[in-house]
Design goal:
This protein is α/β, with parallel strands linked by helices. It is built from five helices and ten strands; from the N terminus they run E-H-H-E-H-E-H-E-E-E-E-E-E-E-H. It has one domain: Metallo-dependent phosphatases (Purple Acid Phosphatase, chain A, domain 2). Helix 3 packs parallel to helix 4. InterPro entries: Calcineurin-like_PHP, Metallo-depent_PP-like.
Length: about 220
Amino acid sequence: MKDYFISDPHFGHRLVSRLRGFDDPYKHDRYLYEQWMDKLPSNERIRLWMLGDLYCGKPPAEEKALRFIAQFRDDLLSRKNTDMWMEALLGNHDQAHPMKRNNLRSLRNFNRVFDSVQTVARYSLNGSLVMLHHFPYSGDYEPEKTMQFRLHDLGQTLIHGHTHSGEQISWSDKGTLQVNVGVEACPGFAPMSSEEVAKVIAEASRQKPKSPQKQ
């Protein structure tokens, strides 16, 4: 089974659509649909890791976004004969996230569409364990609002979203590698394969900044 990673599609979100160069959320969503359809392989069984922020807004936005991604999975099967397993790692804009007061109703909705729903996962990439999470360890905006729901930085490479940055690579305050798979950081706004992510990690590891020497 091939694995693919992406975060922060923000289906139906007018502000994010405009920031990405689309004057209408529908055009934005259809562009992502076509880019993903073109990128993902034919005649295979794959797994898509969605690292949070499927949408942003009230319950109608959730319903539309879940229906959209479910339709995409059906269309991928009918158009390219590819069966897609979908793993959701919740983000701060997903109402199913435990930081939301009434998350259980939305959690049930997510469970009807995704094959698994969680907030964190550990993944073996080329024999090395990496962490999957919506938030980076550090270095993004307003971390104090979400600190209770972030991972402790224990030195494991982290694959994340949330930042809406076009930069794929950053380093945490402790010097740990962080790989951004948000839509803006993914070539063509399409999911990155595990091979592509592994290549990014390998290249970044060769460029790791030296830790400041202790005096």
